[in-house]
Structure formats: structure tokens, C-alpha cells
Write a structure and sequence with these properties.
The chain is an all-alpha fold and 298 residues long. The protein contains 13 helices and 2 strands; from the N terminus they run ααααββααααααααα. A hairpin with a 2-residue loop joins strand 1 and strand 2. Helix 6 packs antiparallel against helix 8, helix 9 runs antiparallel to helix 12 and helix 9 runs parallel beside helix 13. It binds geranylgeranyl diphosphate. Geranylgeranyl diphosphate (GRG) binds next to helix 4, helix 7, helix 8 and helix 9.
Length: 298
């Protein structure tokens, strides 16, 4: 399997599903939906929904198909996009470029962008809970909603962001950096993998293995993000490069230098793939996705 065409096919699958699962910009709330859709459809690698679909397929269940998983996959991208919109706000990173385009608040104003983020976050749980979307048993919906809520909230992404902001321009131990990475970035990536596994009816062993895999690729993802921030250009990234150093953020390259950081990212990817030892060929895309997370250029 060639990773480039696989990623392209999966990205198209997810983006086509947005038309089925995310409201069109019409009616009384037209401008609000337009702001939500602007950021959601502005591009992006779609890593979290693709991981969710790949984890579900790795289980090899025959009683569910992509149409059952896609609402979950789209919900994850809605949450991820909300976090980017809010992260770019003047009160947070104050960025005017994201995914190579103007950030949400530049086009829709601060209030419009805050509400677009709120709308996407809340819509995600509508998608997860509403039996009209996909054919998942209620107990699976409940477990998936809880898993994603926990990962996106104060014990996960929101808490990690709060800790990250509070730590700017301060000295802190490496353990704090690990906690920031694990919660801010790793939690939603891990939940993307686990939610796919729950949807596909994974047993406890499979779920534990996929949790390990998710944690390791989540770590690798953030280390590579730090590396790219330090080494790539704004044009390559489609968002501000070099911002970590400007904001005085503690990062892997700041602690270990570029070479040691690369080795740590590679090790996390190898550990992730080892977690899949008991899985058959259905898990091959997950193995390739782990490699991609290390080799990605933006
Ligand atoms: C505002 C609650 C709240 C959280 C913000 C996502 C986030 C937390 C901050 C963004 C800043 C950042 C560099 C986070 C770590 C890595 C990360 C999540 C990068 C962006 O994700 P990608 O690379 O982006 O998957 P695309 O555009 O491809 O979807």
C-alpha cells in the first residue's frame, strides 16, 4: 500500500462525509454555519478521522462499515478544528494564518470565531449521540462520547492548553512538558484510535494495544510538530513557523536539540508499531500512519 494515495483517498472520504454530517450554511444561522464550515473545509491532513477509520478496520469486524464510523470520524475533526480556531484567537496564539488561509477571527471577527468553535465542539456531540447518524448501538455511542469528552476536556486537550499557556516564559521540568504534550495533543489522537476500536467492538486486549499505539503516535506527532515549528517555513506549514521560540515555549528541540529530538520521535513511532504486534494485515494502515507521522512535512 502506498501511503500517499491511501491518505488522499481517506481524506476525500472524510471530506465528502462532511456534506452528510455537518449543516449546510443556510437558514437563520447561515453566517454561523458558514464560519464553522470555513475552517472545517479549509484543508488539513485529517489525521484524527483517518486514524479512527483505520483503527476500526484493524479490528476486522464484519457487522459495521465506514458509514457507521464516519460520523465519529467527522466529530473528531469538528473538535480538532474548534481547538485550532480558538488556539488562533488573539487571547491565545494570536495567529492570522492557519492551513494556509486567513484564520477564522480574521474573517468572522472574534465573537464569530469563538462561536464557530463552540458550534463545532457541540455539533460533534450531536453527531456522536444522534441515532440518525450511522448505525451504532447506544452503548457504543455512550462509551465513544465519554472517551472523546474526556480527551477533549479539562483532563485532556483543554487542560493541556491551559497548562501550556500558564507555562509560557517560565522554567519547568521536562515532566511538565510531557504532561502538556500528552494532554494537549496526545489525548485527542489516542481517543481517535480508541473510539474507532470501540465502534468496531474491540475486545479488552485489542483496546489496550490500540491505546498504547495511540499514546505513542500522539507523542511522536507533537515532537514532530515541535521539530517542524523549529525547522520548516511558514509556507511549508501553512501556519506561523518559529512561533514556539518567539513565545519562549519549552519544546523537545529546546530541551534536547534537533538530532536527539528526531531520535525520540523515531523511537515513539517504533514503540507504536510494536504495540500492534498481535494485529494482522488489517492493521497495516495503522503501521504506515505511524511512519507518516514521523516523515510528514507539515
Ligand atoms: C484551544 C482548547 C484549545 C486547545 C488548543 C490544538 C491545540 C490545542 C493547539 C494548536 C497548537 C498546536 C501546535 C498544537 C499541537 C499540535 C497540533 C494539534 C497541531 C495541529 O494539528 P494538525 O497538524 O493540523 O493535525 P491540520 O491542519 O493538519 O488538521
Amino acid at each position: 500500500m502506498e501511503i500517499k494515495s491511501y491518505l488522499n483517498d481517506q481524506r476525500l472520504l472524510v471530506e465528502t462525509a462532511f456534506d452528510d454530517f455537518v449543516p449546510a450554511a443556510t437558514g437563520d444561522f447561515k453566517k454561523h454555519f458558514e464560519a464553522m464550515r470555513y475552517s472545517l473545509l479549509a484543508g488539513g491532513k485529517r489525521v484524527r478521522p483517518i486514524l479512527c477509520l483505520a483503527a476500526a478496520r484493524a479490528i476486522g469486524a464484519t457487522d459495521i462499515d465506514d458509514q457507521d464510523i464516519l460520523p465519529v470520524a467527522c466529530a473528531l475533526e469538528c473538535i480538532h478544528t474548534y481547538s485550532l480556531i480558538h488556539d488562533d484567537l488573539p487571547a491565545m496564539d494570536d495567529d492570522d494564518l492557519r492551513r494556509g488561509k486567513a484564520t477564522n477571527h480574521i474573517l468572522y471577527g472574534e465573537a464569530g470565531a469563538i462561536l464557530a468553535g463552540d458550534g463545532l465542539l457541540t455539533w460533534a456531540f450531536d453527531l456522536l449521540c444522534n441515532p440518525e447518524y450511522g448505525n451504532l448501538a447506544p452503548e457504543k455511542r455512550l462509551a465513544i462520547s465519554h472517551c472523546i469528552a474526556r480527551a477533549a476536556g479539562s483532563y485532556g486537550m483543554v487542560g493541556g492548553q491551559a497548562l501550556d499557556i500558564a507555562s509560557e516564559n517560565t522554567q519547568f521540568p521536562f515532566e511538565t512538558l510531557q504532561t502538556i504534550h500528552k494532554s494537549k495533543t496526545g489525548a485527542l489522537i489516542t481517543a481517535s484510535v480508541i473510539s474507532g476500536a470501540i465502534a468496531a467492538g474491540a475486545d479488552e486486549n485489542q483496546r489496550n494495544a490500540l491505546e498504547q499505539y495511540g499514546q505513542q503516535i500522539g507523542l511522536a506527532f507533537q515532537i514532530v510538530d515541535d521539530l517542524l515549528n523549529a525547522t520548516a517555513t511558514t509556507e511549508q506549514l501553512g501556519k506561523a513557523a518559529g512561533s514556539d521560540a518567539e513565545l519562549g515555549k519549552a519544546t523537545y528541540p529546546a530541551y534536547f536539540g534537533i538530532e536527539e529530538t528526531r531520535i525520540r520521535a523515531q523511537n515513539a513511532v517504533e514503540d507504536a508499531k510494536e504495540s500492534l504486534a498481535e494485529f494482522d494485515d488489517n492493521a497495516q494502515p495503522l503501521r504506515l500512519l505511524a511512519d507518516y507521522i514521523y516523515t510528514r512535512s507539515h
